[in-house]
Amino acid sequence: MNDVDEAIIRAHREEWARVVAALTRRFGDLDVAEEAAAEAFAVAVEKWPADGVPPNPGAWLTTTAQRKAIDRIRRESKRDDKQKEAGLVYDDDPPEPLGAIDDDRLRLVFTCCHPALAVEARVALTLRLVGGLTVPEISRAFLVAESTMGQRITRAKAKIKAARIPYRVPSAGDLPARVSGVLTVLFLVFNEGYLATGPDTDPVRHDLTAEAIRLTRLIHALLPDDGEVTGLLALMLLTEARRPARVSAGGELVALDEQDRGTWDTTLIAEGHALVRERLAAGVAPGRYQILAAINAVHTSAADMRDTDWSQVLALYDQLVHVDASPIVALNRAIAVAELDGPQVALAAVDRLEPELTGYHPFHATRADLLRRLGRGAEARAAYDKAIQLAGNTAETASLTRRRDQLPNGG
């Protein structure tokens, strides 16, 4: 890959959301904004190799996209109706910022996460327009067909237009009711960045994790006393702190027990721990994100895997089960059970989850690891094979393959 190709890829990661958000604010139409942004990047692919990468790629892309959008509107046979409709959906005057927060991407997040939309549509639309993920990437993340995901995104944009959903950060009175759905989406964007689902993408996408953290910081500034906002920010920071150790030089995902903890970002860890302590001092019953942040605080407090306070981890998972009784939480709880009560007890708990998690590759990877520890090599190999078949991330596939291939022959 040459320097220009790398510049185009980097610009897409760093500038996509900015371009879409800027065009949405100006033209009030998500379809126009997305398609014009895509056309601008197509022009960049054509022109940058010959003309060189512009000094400010973001400004170049935004200007090009705006021209494309204007050209498209002029070509529309019902141009006046379209502009009138856009004016109904979005006020002609720029939306008023809330306090010190004035950010087009944050407005775009709240637009995509409006409660008039189904939760699945909010997630899909945000990942597409804010995260810049492709429809195949989003469909893989949620285990649905590409056609289904494409229709979901199309319907969501149509709903925003039909319902005249405004492009703005909600008023202070509306924020608490709106923030839960936004946090769900930002967490999913962060997770896609921390372990990308696509086989042809970087295994860890710092652009997505950084954007999720940036937007969560903005919401934390809006709602500093909201425990779940603080919890999610802490969770993201403590997870992001481990990113330098996540992928080996050979491109293989490195599990928590094998990571070089000396490479963890101590500044992010300190900030995350401070936020966790802040919520503990508040004396308010914690929600899902606060408990997950506390679990991560325990892990990042241990200088070595052997120093992990697994009793505390299990107690926190027991608390989490009362808040979120999902099978994925139960699966993660079983990993802590294995450390305290042994792999046999944990395997029994994991096997009970099979009907719900049969298409979830971490389920099979967890089973494989427990079976390996029990010396049941043939069964472990079959479980690794299933996990490899379902995993999309190339770095994770490489890690699972190595673990499988390290099993004794004939086990």
UniProtKB/TrEMBL annotation:
Keywords for this protein: Sigma factor, Transcription, Transcription regulation
One GO MF term attached to the UniProt entry: DNA binding
Domain RNA polymerase sigma factor 70 region 4 type, chain residue ranges per copy: 110-160
A biological process term (GO) from this entry: DNA-templated transcription initiation
Any Pfam family the entry gives: Sigma70_r2
Compositionally biased tracts (Basic and acidic residues): 75-85
Residue ranges constituting the DUF6596 domain according to the UniProt record: 178-278
Ranges where the record places region Disordered: 75-94
Residue ranges of domain RNA polymerase sigma-70 region in the record: 18-78
Family: Belongs to the sigma-70 factor family. ECF subfamily.
Stated name of the protein: RNA polymerase sigma-70 factor, ECF subfamily
Origin species: Amycolatopsis pretoriensis
Organismal lineage: Bacteria, Bacillati, Actinomycetota, Actinomycetes, Pseudonocardiales
